[in-house]
Amino acid sequence: MLSCKQAGSPEALDHLSYHVPVLLKEAVGFLNVYPGGIYVDATLGGGSHSRAILENLGPEGRLISIDRDPEAIAWSRQMAEKSGGRCTLIQANYSHLNEVLSEVSPVNGILFDLGVSSHQLDTERRGFSFRFSGPLDMRMGPDADLDAGTLLRTWSEDELARIFRDYGEERHARRIASAIVKERHNILTTWDLAELVRKVSPAPSQSSRIDAATKVFQALRLAVNAELDGLKAGLNAAVECLAPGGRLVVIAYHSLEDRIVKTFLKEQSAPCICLPDLPRCACGRIATMKTVTGKPVRPSEAEIAANPRSRSARLRVGERLSRGR
Ligand SMILES: C[S@@+](CC[C@H](N)C(=O)[O-])C[C@H]1O[C@@H](n2cnc3c(N)ncnc32)[C@H](O)[C@@H]1O
Q1: What residue ranges of the chain have pLDDT lower than 70?
Q2: CB-hemisphere CA count at 13 Å for 231?
């Protein structure tokens, strides 16, 4: 963990150049911020959501802003210093939210704005994008076990095919995995990998504007950062940390993440999970959450036009019930 005073200093203060926030008003509105409450931004990034939460907090309120990426923590150092002690920055993985929040929970609202920041995507040396020729890194933070290059060099063809299929929904997962295993000692950069994937993939249809390497890059990123398991752990921990009436607000950017959030909210708001033909309840479960958004909230056309990266966003909200596990 890193307190705001320990974090390094950003080069510039223009937080929008780090990341343009998505569904900013909607997300902070759903958090129902009241002046004396305690709120958690589990994915600080460039700090825009945190700033908006701080604007609604009074002198007694508190904000805990978390990111696994030390560059995000460093970027928001001044925001925390100017907050009059209301904001604490913590470098951690949100999958350990219970431990991170052990001294402040229960809290009144938690925001997850999932995925990568524009800063991570657009920084060549981080290796997230095939728009640049960078090292095969893709780690969001130093807590990730291995980088993408190590994964590609050491995982078996079966394991690679599995992640391309399960995390990338890639139809040619086996063919790509096999080509990678044959060539793996020559794949040193993002461009080497993207070129190989394009070479072994069937030619995309003329109408397709999606690069053949997109799904493989998504799969690798999810695997390197254990994103889907981390999300499940983070959501479960969040429920434990929320006070009754506290809101859980989640913005997802692809169907795999959104499915996890949707299923999670459905399960937490179901009072009993026994099969319908059981004569009486055997699970003894009590609902812990109420779903606030039936359908996910999506960005407006104006927001998508201004920030095309927002186009896939889906926001879902749950509210902690007073009775529960
Ligand atoms: C989409 S950005 C957040 C942008 C932010 N809301 C803003 O407005 O600038 C997602 C951030 O979450 C962080 N992140 C992703 N997974 C994480 C995890 N498991 N634990 C902590 N931080 C995580 C990433 O490092 C990234 O900085």
Answers
A1: 1-13, 205-207, 323-325
A2: 25
The answer for residues whose C-beta is within 8 angstroms of residue 255's C-beta and 6 or more apart is 169
**Burial group, residue 175, by CB count within 10 angstroms (0-12, 13-18, 19+):** middle
> Packing angle between helix 157-168 and helix 173-183, nearest 10 degrees?
140
- The confidence score (pLDDT) of residue 206 equals 62
What pLDDT, on a 0 to 100 scale, did the predictor assign at position 210?
85
Q: How many angstroms does the Cα of residue 113 sit away from the middle of ligand 1? A: 6
Atom of ligand 1 nearest to the CA of 117: 2
Q: How far apart are CA 13 and CA 246, in angstroms?
A: 31
**Which residue ranges form the domains of the chain, and what is each CATH number?**
15-119+227-320 (3.40.50.150), 145-224 (1.10.150.170)
pLDDT digits 0-9 by tens, 263-287: 999 999 988 878 888 888 888 888 9
The whole-number pLDDT of residue 323 equals 59
Name the residue of 90, 110, 117, 122 whose CB sits within 8 Å of the most ligand 1 atoms, as the mutation to test its pocket. Answer: 117
218 CA to middle of ligand 1, Å? Answer: 16
Indicate which atom in ligand 1 lies nearest the CA of residue 72. Answer: 27
